[in-house]
Amino acid sequence: MIELTNVTKTYIQHKTKFHAVDNVTISVKNGDIYGVIGRSGAGKSTLLRMINLLEIPTKGSVVVDGQDLTQLTGKQLRLARQSIGMIFQHFNLVSNKTILDNVLVALELANYPKKERMERALEVLRFVGLEDHAAKYPSQLSGGQKQRVAIARAIANKPKLLLCDEPTSSLDPNTTREILSVLRKINQELGVTIVIVSHEMDVIKSICNLVTIMDNGKVYETIGLKPEGIGD
Ligand code: ADP
Ligand code: ADP
């Protein structure tokens, strides 16, 4: 599903070159819940953002679903990105739009068939347990609810891959479990491959089947895991 090969991202900091990600090779299989862990500044987020080319690698190739994204034209890349959903630590909802409109806008941007957008939006909101909140604004929801809206928005266009950047880092332990259980349901019931970046080992151990440990931009080790479960 994902093959990152010798991927490097170099930034210029204080007039010197600095490798935020340094010659990383990882392989994510279809159906994986793949974790990337490491301390702050290790390069996790940069690595994740190179999977959908939100960051352009300085070197290396990024093959997703058989396509090398670094070789695509702008138009081809926009199309390829439509099968990659993403969620963030701070949810990134549009605050002056309702929950329903947040999801509808995503479907519109993805060129989802116009006549089916409303039905699909309600369907994904139901999937994350929020259809009764469709008319509310993000500020009227709890953190856990906001992240569930962000998840609904990310899966609305039926992506094969969901990228999660510290998805539970601003949530309390109970809400964290609730979000992890939604992510696992998306993996198991919808067959979506998931990559989760986190600095919390408990989060990774509860649902991931593989974890890559990063430090200083490099892969320290990749280990197979037997997911421990979410306490349910
Ligand atoms: P993590 O997600 O593991 O906390 P990041 O990928 O966010 O790490 O950052 C890795 C390193 O790259 C950090 O030292 C960060 O300061 C640096 N970095 C990230 N983005 C930029 C940027 N746009 N310009 C310069 N340095 C950056
Ligand atoms: P969750 O179980 O998703 O974390 P909570 O138990 O925190 O939800 O919230 C319960 C209810 O309180 C929700 O219906 C939500 O709309 C409302 N609520 C939570 N936080 C806020 C807030 N900051 N402002 C307004 N309403 C809130």
TrEMBL record:
<feature type="domain" description="ABC transporter">
    <location>
        <begin position="2"/>
        <end position="232"/>
    </location>
</feature>
<keyword id="KW-0813">Transport</keyword>
<keyword id="KW-1278">Translocase</keyword>
<dbReference type="Pfam" id="PF00005">
    <property type="entry name" value="ABC_tran"/>
</dbReference>
<keyword id="KW-0067">ATP-binding</keyword>
<dbReference type="InterPro" id="IPR017871">
    <property type="entry name" value="ABC_transporter-like_CS"/>
</dbReference>
<keyword id="KW-0547">Nucleotide-binding</keyword>
<dbReference type="InterPro" id="IPR003593">
    <property type="entry name" value="AAA+_ATPase"/>
</dbReference>
<dbReference type="InterPro" id="IPR003439">
    <property type="entry name" value="ABC_transporter-like_ATP-bd"/>
</dbReference>
<protein>
    <submittedName>
        <fullName>Methionine ABC transporter ATP-binding protein</fullName>
    </submittedName>
</protein>
<keyword id="KW-0472">Membrane</keyword>
<keyword id="KW-0029">Amino-acid transport</keyword>
<dbReference type="InterPro" id="IPR027417">
    <property type="entry name" value="P-loop_NTPase"/>
</dbReference>
<dbReference type="InterPro" id="IPR050086">
    <property type="entry name" value="MetN_ABC_transporter-like"/>
</dbReference>
<dbReference type="GO" id="GO:0005524">
    <property type="term" value="F:ATP binding"/>
</dbReference>
<dbReference type="InterPro" id="IPR041701">
    <property type="entry name" value="MetN_ABC"/>
</dbReference>
<keyword id="KW-1003">Cell membrane</keyword>
